[in-house]
Design a protein that fits this description.
The chain is of the alpha/beta class and 391 residues long. It has two domains: 3-199 and 369-387, 3-Layer(aba) Sandwich (Rossmann fold); 213-366, Glycogen Phosphorylase B (Rossmann fold, 3-Layer(aba) Sandwich). It is built from 15 helices and 13 strands. The chain has helices at residues 12-27, 38-41, 71-101, 113-122, 141-158, 181-184, 228-231, 237-246, 277-283, 293-300, 315-324, 338-350, 352-368, 370-379, 384-387; strands at residues 3-7, 31-36, 51-53, 105-109, 126-130, 174-177, 195-197, 222-226, 252-256, 269-272, 286-289, 306-308, 328-330. The strands form two sheets. It has a seven-stranded parallel β-sheet with strand order 3-2-1-4-5-6-7, with helices on both faces. Strands 10-9-8-11-12-13 form a six-stranded parallel β-sheet, with helices on both faces. Helix 5 links the parallel strand 5 and strand 6. The termini are close together.
Length: 391
């Protein structure tokens, strides 16, 4: 039996892939512990989970109050206002967690820098989970050099000189990417690392979410609309536009949005603040989203075409990947009209080439193995003598 310590940032989109991998590892008989911001994530972890909390040092807002910045500027803000402060604050707590739990291997979200530093400091093997393929892309030389300088400063504060590397967030053991290489395109430049493209996970480990399934019309095509957990409450204009676009169309729309919007929704639109996304995708005909990596890949894994309304961070990059692959349509998040949105809805439900491109990617995703492949990569870092004890 292997002992495995998992750490992720306090964002649901980063937790869910790790949950699926952890569920597979537990199914195989291994012992897991979590080092997380418990105030945010504890209620989303299994009830039996062993948790090392990272809450008392979080004197900054994570994700929900991110400023309205775009493009390369969002990379600077991500490191200065989020990743680096979180790493510095989490470092001593994560170090104590690892020293207490004594893991054989660590599983570290690519954005949880403290986890990568702790693993390197203790000489532990570790597997990085990359929840967005945009994280592995090289940017401009100026920006890459700036990121490198920030990471060097962070390492110098906690690591001996001989352990400092150019990009400590990339694992030298295995870099798991929850996508497929084909979706990145041929022209991109990526950081060198031992990559393993495993495709999206299938939702294992997530806690059940109540949903009024009887409200769904069995004969109407279902369109899921979601801007993710971070962007959901920021701008209701997009949701209002989508409601108007769907009015009187022969479809049913489930919208992940503040539930007060239900009062203005037409009869064929159901508004819920949280939904069982995987189960809804299994019934959906199309998806409209912010190009969040998890939602995109979970939709493509089911051969669903996408309307993509990127807002910030990696979302424009992910949207471009899907559009270039022929499986999606671009939407202007802040400027789209109801008429334009209506045309996107009609095209998503009728345009055969969009679905064919999505189904081609679904075939590649299915072959990649998802959480089973990721779990096998984690266990590949564990001495064989420990694995032999698993029943």
């Amino acid at each position: 039996m292997a002992r495995i310590l998992v750490t992720v940032p306090p964002l649901t989109g980063h937790l869910n892939p790790a949950l699926a991998v952890a569920c597979e590892l537990e199914r195989q008989g291994h012992e897991l512990a979590w080092a997380v911001h418990a105030e945010v994530l504890a209620d989303k972890l299994p009830a039996h989970a062993r948790i090392y909390g990272l809450d008392d040092q979080a004197a900054f807002v994570l994700g929900t109050a991110a400023p309205q910045v775009r493009g390369l500027e969002s990379v600077r803000v991500f490191f200065e206002d989020y990743a680096l402060p979180m790493a510095k604050a989490a470092w001593p707590h994560l170090l104590r967690a690892a020293q207490d739990f004594q893991p054989d291997v660590m599983v570290v979200d690519h954005q949880m820098l403290a986890g990568a530093l702790v693993a390197r400091y203790l000489g532990l093997p570790w597997v990085a989970l990359t929840t967005t393929s945009a994280s592995i892309l090289r940017m401009s030389k100026t920006l890459d050099d700036w990121v490198g300088a920030q990471l060097a400063d962070l390492q110098q504060a906690v690591l001996p000189a001989q352990l400092i590397v150019e990009r400590p967030d990339f694992s030298p053991y295995a870099q798991v990417v929850f996508s497929v290489r084909a979706l990145l395109g041929e022209q991109v430049s990526i950081w060198p690392a031992p990559y393993h493209f495993v495709g999206p996970v299938q939702g294992s480990g997530r806690r059940p979410i109540e949903f009024p399934w009887s409200s769904l019309h069995p004969q109407l095509p279902l369109v899921l609309v979601s801007l993710g957990t971070v962007s959901r409450d920021r701008d209701t204009r997009f949701f209002s536009v989508m409601m108007e676009a769907a009015r009187d169309l022969p479809l049913q729309m489930v919208m992940v949005a503040p539930e007060f919007l239900q009062a203005q929704a037409p009869a064929n639109v159901l508004v819920r603040s949280y939904v069982p996304q995987i189960e809804l995708l299994d019934r959906a005909a199309a998806v409209i989203c912010h190009a969040g990596h998890n939602t995109v890949c979970e939709a493509l894994a089911r051969g669903l075409p996408l309307g993509l309304a990127p807002i910030r961070d990696d979302q424009p990059v992910v949207a471009r990947q899907v559009i270039d692959a022929g499986a999606g349509l671009f939407m202007r998040h802040g400027k789209i009209s109801a008429g334009e949105a209506r045309q996107v809805l009609l095209r998503l439900l009728s345009q055969a080439d969009l679905r064919q491109a999505a189904e081609k990617l679904a075939t590649l995703f299915a072959a990649a193995g998802g959480e089973r492949s990721a779990a096998a990569l984690v266990l590949a870092q564990v001495p064989a003598t420990l694995l032999e004890t698993v029943a």
